[in-house]
Amino acid sequence: FALDEGRPLDAVEQLDWALLTGMDAELVRVLERVDSARAAGANAGADEPETEERVVVPTPDVDAARRRLDLRAADELERVPAERLCVAEFASGHFATGTPVLVAGAARGWPALDKWVDVRYFVRACGHRIIPVEIGRSALKAGDGWREAGMRMRDFVAGHLLPSCAADLADRPLPAGSIGYCAQHQLFEHVRALAADISVPVYCAAARGGVQLVNCWLGTRETATPLHFDSYDNCLVQVVGLKLVRLYGKDQ
How many domains are contained in the chain? Predict the structure, then answer.
């Protein structure tokens, strides 16, 4: 074990790889202790490159996206400001009836809303950590070169998120090899440094049994998830960027 040999960064990497095979609460606690020891070490910063200036994710043009995708207003979800929808009304009018709704401002006050607009924040917060990444446009598209890989967060930022920001600004496609997606991963359990950036939305109190799982999706432009059905209810919070979600009724 690398920690016994005085190599805490390598020990963190070993534990990260172990967690990618399956989340384990005790292993997470061990990893946090090891990472704290690494951060407190005399040469803690030696493994981290200097972080450059902020790179802000371009603000998406929602109206232009609607026109490009030929979306009709009649097809969009009901939009309700958070201050006008209490948990009881959400529970009876939406959760109990299975009626989706877009709650505007439900994540107001999250630190992530300010921090995550700068993609280099992830380098500063956890650049040395290993995360799972899907590379390529789609696992269902033959010949696309889609694959899964584990990589350090700083490499994900440099090789995927930064090129995606540049492509957004230039309004050009992103090469398939630069498309990257850390998808449906328990990132806040895995990397506790990011957990303080969010909180559980109050509307999750409507669910029987409480919150079962908190996942994170962090990716470039042109990522896609195939049509699927989840066996559990979802509360999706969009922190930065733009995401198109197509919902189909049970009779469709």
Answer: 2
The encoded tokens of residue 85 equal 């929808």
Residue 131: half-sphere exposure toward Cβ, Cα within 13 Å? 34
151 inside domain: yes
**pTM for this predicted structure:** 0.88
CB 118 within 8 A of CB 55: yes
Give me the domain span that covers residue 210: 62-75+103-219
**Cα 69 from Cα 75, distance rounded (Å):** 12
Distance CA 144, CA 135 (A): 10
Which helix (H) or strand (E) covers residue 64, if one does?
helix 62-69
pLDDT in tens, 120-168: 999 999 999 999 999 997 766 656 678 999 999 999 999 999 999 999 9
195 and 119 inside one domain = yes
How is the chain split among helix, strand and coil, in percent rounded to 5?
40, 10, 45
At a CB cut-off of 8 Å and minimum separation 6, what does 106 contact? 82, 201, 202, 203, 237
- In the block, tokens 């449906």 appear at 184
Both 69 and 189 in one domain: the answer is yes
